[in-house]
Amino acid sequence: MEEIRILIADDEEEIRGLLKKYLEREHYKIDEAIDGAEALKLYNQNRYQLVLLDLMMPSIDGIEVCRKIREKSNIPIMMLTAKDDEIDKILGLSIGADDYITKPFSIHEVVARVKACLRRFIVLGSDGHGQEESVLTFNHIKIDMKKIQVLVKGEEVTLTGKEFELLKFFATHPQQVFTKTQIFRNVWDSNYIEDDNTVMVHIRKLRMKIEEDPSNPKVIQTVWGIGYKFTGDIHES
To answer: Which residues sit opposite 77 in a β-bridge?
Structure first.
C-alpha cells in the first residue's frame, strides 16, 4: 500500500508540531511548511494525499495556495484558521477546500476528520483504482464511478473530490429528498459540525458545473423548507 503523505502548512510552530505528532501516530508521513511559498514548493516536489492549510500565512496565504493546488489536483484540502468569519469560510470552500477547521480545535477531532477525508479519497479511487465499476447516465450527464469522471454533454468537467462525492451521493439516491444535515453527515462523514453553508456552497459550485442553467437547476433541485433532491431516473451500465 502506498505511503500516505500529508503536507501541513502553518506559520505557528506549535500548531505544526501538535498536528505532526498526532498524525504520525496514525502512521502518516508528514511534511511541514512555515508559509505559503514553502507549501507550494513542497507540493510541487512531492506527491501528497492531503494538505492541511492555515488560512493566514506569510508570503502567500492559504486561499492562494489552495487555488494553485486546485489547478493541478483534486486531493483533499483542509483549511485551518483562527478566524471565525463566515465570509472567509465560504471563500475557502468556494475555491475548492474540502473542509474548514477553526482554531482552537480539538486535535482528536482534526485527526478523525483527516482520516475520514483520506478514507473517502482512497475509496473513490484517486489512484485510478476505484471500487465502483458502473457508469450512471442522466440526460446530459454521464458519471463514471471507476474513472472518477463526469461528462456533461460529452465534455469532461473537472470536479473536486468533495464535489464528486456530492454528485455521487445524489445520483445514487435519485428522487430522494435530503436535508442539509443528512447531506453533510453522508458526504462529509462527520458528526462533529453540521454546517448548512458548507453544503450550500458545494451545491452551488456543483450546479455551476453540471446544470445547463445554474440559475434554474433541473438536476439538483431545491425542495423549499426541506433540502435538495436529484431528479430523474439514473440508468446504470
So the answer is: 51
The SS3 assignment for 176 reads coil
Residue 208 · residue 163 · CB < 8 Å: no
pTM over 0.85: no
**171 within 8 A of 220, measured Cβ to Cβ:** no
Per-residue pLDDT at 1 exceeds 60: no
pLDDT digit string, tens, across residues 174-230:
888 888 888 888 888 665 555 668 889 999 999 999 999 999 999 999 999 889 999
Query: For residues 48 and 153, what is the distance between their CA atoms, to the nearest angstrom?
Result: 32
DSSP character for 173? Answer: S
Mean pLDDT of the chain: 83
Task: Please report, for residues 143, 145, 147, 227, the alpha-carbon distance to residue 75 in angstroms, rounded to integers and kept in the order given.
Answer: 19, 17, 15, 28
Instruction: Tell me the pLDDT tens digit for each residue of 172-181.
Output: 888 888 888 8
CB 31 within 8 A of CB 6: yes
For residue 115, what are the CA distances in angstroms to 23, 119, 188? 9, 6, 11
Burial class (CB in 10 A: 0-12, 13-18, 19+), 39: buried
Cβ atoms of 100 and 198 closer than 8 Å: yes
Let me know: does 198 contact 206? Beta carbons within 8 Å.
no
Tell me how far CA of residue 12 lies from CA of 74, 169, 228, in angstroms. Answer: 26, 37, 40
